[in-house]
Amino acid sequence: MVQRAFHAVGRLRGRVLLDRFEASARRARSLDLRTLQEIVAANRDTEFGRAHGFGSLDLREDAAAYRRAVPLHAYADLAPYVERMAEGERGVLCAEAPSLFAMSSGTSGQPKLVPITPRLQALQVRCYGGLIPAVAGRRIPGGGDPHRGIMLISGADSGLRTRGGIPMGSASAGGIVKMRRIMPLLWTTPFEALVVGDRGANGYLHALFGLRELEAKFIQTAFCPTVVSWLRMIEDRFETLVRDIEHGTLDPSLRLTSDERARIEPRLRADPVRAEELRRAVAHGFSGFVPRAWPHLRYVAAVITGSFGAYVPNLRHYIGDALPIFTIIYIASEGIIGLNLWPDEPERYALAAGMAAFEFIPVAQVDDPSPTTVGLDGLHRGDEYEVVLTNHAGLYRYRMTDVVRVVDFVEELPVISFCHRRGELLDLVGERLTPRHTRDAVEGFVCRFGGPGARLMDYTTARDTESTPPRHVFYVEMVGAEGSSIDQASAHLDAALVEHCHAHAFQTRSERQIGMPRVKLMQPGAFDRLAQWRLDRSPGASQNQLKTPRVVDDPELLGVLEQLVLAQTE
Fold this sequence. Notes:
Elements lengths: L1 H22 L4 H15 L4 H5 L12 H6 L5 H12 L13 E4 L9 E4 L1 H22 L10 E2 L16 E2 L1 H4 L8 H4 L4 H4 L4 H13 L6 E6 H13 L1 H10 L10 H7 L7 H10 L8 H4 L5 E5 L8 H8 L5 E2 L2 E4 L2 E5 L9 E3 L5 E6 L21 E7 L7 E13 L2 E9 L13 H16 L4 E10 L6 E9 L9 H12 L1 H10 L6 E5 L3 H12 L17 H9 L1 E4 L2
Parallel strand pairs: 1-4, 3-5, 5-6, 6-7, 16-17
Antiparallel strand pairs: 1-2, 8-9, 9-10, 10-14, 11-12, 12-13, 13-14, 15-16, 17-18
Helix pairs in contact: 1-6, 10-12, 11-16, 12-14, 17-18, 18-19
């Protein structure tokens, strides 16, 4: 009864929030300007605000005065201010004191410290706790059922603090303690299991408590590879998991402290009936086992856009073809950028007007030393832009490095799709291979080289400029290959690149400016080990944030990749 009442209230609140968000499409431009006005007014007495004349800016009609007063910023430009905030200095970038410094995963460079204020955190909670469930409830059959879901998230305190004593970690972990009371009504994993420190144990516990829940409504995580790795872990450790469920035990090999184990064990109970149901669900293998294990599951929520699309075949291997994949949100540590209102269309995000103030750099100018920006009224359907935001936590005219395409408008509200990040183009001599080009080419290569039973697990690329002519290097992990000769790999990949990128075909076939690609086949589990190495290197970052970089330039990261190579072409 409590659960049903809670969900009824939550559905009502979510509907109100969603109605307001959809209604804002009619006034998205004025809402964006009002958001900027609020940010500037709230921070006019900060050091940054005084230096840029926030107190005298006239923003009644448009944002032109703000853009003249404040230059565009990359992270490096704001880093000295952020470091002072991290030391505990107040009133530097924003008036509100940060409650957390989110640590980025470093996918597009060195890890960054991103200030998170209570206001910014409240916006994220409103989005995750209200808007996203409301979209699922309105647009996915059964998405509003009063059942709990499996949320693959970690709330563990990294234990890291800035020199000023402010917590450092993932943005998602920061709000979990505040949700402790309502968490049992939302998610299958109890709070005591969510906050364990070891990442492997955290994933196992999500599986243990999630598998016990016959009526689980959803599986949710940030990015597609996280849920694929989690389902693969369930396959690998299935017998241990089912034995724990059957007997109400906790695998002694889990890396848990005595206190963590003591807090979790009272949550366990023997359930031999559920254990037998799970054994029947995988009696004929793990292909499509998810809807058999959770027959009431309504959707999987994870981002599958951009290069994440490479993981969809592996996800479909486990969940089958019928279960919807909902790409809920377009978010970064710096803020919420878009909300997907159309669960069956993963490439469409309504701009999150009101959650930050937005500008856009036309893609033709992104490499200019002083590019111009346009507001929402200057966007054109079909064109591409780099996202620039001003948020509530001290990031002013901040270049996200994300390039998006405007695919539609809902009244004044632009609908965008993610294209790529600056720096992720493979571009040796002007061929400009986008992540979508390389993803399609690698998938084509796996089919050509590995045969019909082969599946791509993950991949990345690098540039070899020491060869003559220069060439691209592809690190590819696959399973189920039929054993084609490695000598054929470069030709197969080159054919796939030619098929999916005409510019590559021209450069390769006509002028021979690019050499044949070099292929490096990776050991099984190589990218999981690479991810663990990256997490160990940035202990405050979250596995939920982690994205495989599609172009690797860092020598240390390349060195780790090279240690995991199984076979390679010359």
